[in-house]
Amino acid sequence: MNYKFILLIPFLEIICFILSGDYLGFFLVILLIFVTGFLGFILVKSNINLSDIEKLINEPNEWLYKKIAGILLIIPGFVTDLLGLILLVKSLRGMAWSILT
Predict the structure, then answer these.
(1) Quick one: which of 12, 18, 65, 86 could link to 92 by a disulfide (CB 3.0–4.6 Å)?
(2) CA 66, CA 84: separation in Å to the nearest integer?
(3) What is the value of pTM for the model shown?
(4) Using an 8 Å Cβ cutoff, are 100 and 86 in contact?
C-alpha cells in the first residue's frame, strides 16, 4: 500500500484550499465543500429496495464504489472530493484504485 500518499493528503488539502480560495473566493470554496459533503451524504445514506437486491447481487462492486465515493465526498477537501468523483465514473476507477492502493 502506498502510505506516503496517505500522509500527503492533509498537506495537499491545505494547499488546494489556499489556492482555490485565492482563485474562486472564500465563500464559493466553502459552498463547494458543503455541496460535495451533501452529495456524499446522499450517496452513503441511499437505501436498498427489494428491486435493487438483484442488481446488488450481480454487481456488488458498484455498491461498494458508490459508498466509498460517498465517504470521500463527505471528507472536506478538494483532493478527497476529486477521488470520490473519479470513483463514480466507471472508466476512471482503475486509475483511482491504483492511487489509493
Answers:
(1) 86
(2) 9
(3) 0.80
(4) no
Cα–Cα dist 96/83, whole Å: 6
Q: Which of 100, 60, 67 is nearest to 83 (CA)?
A: 100
- 57, three cell numbers: 447481487
- Per the CB < 8 A criterion, the answer to whether 73 and 43 are in contact is yes
Maximum Cα–Cα distance for the chain, whole Å? 48
- Spatial neighbors of 40 by CB under 8 A, at least 6 apart, are 69, 70, 71, 72, 73, 74, 75, 84
Is 71 in contact with 40 (CB distance < 8 Å)? yes
User: Rounded CA gap, 32 and 69, in Å?
Assistant: 16
CB of 80 within 8 A of CB of 72?
A: yes
Amino acid 85 reads L
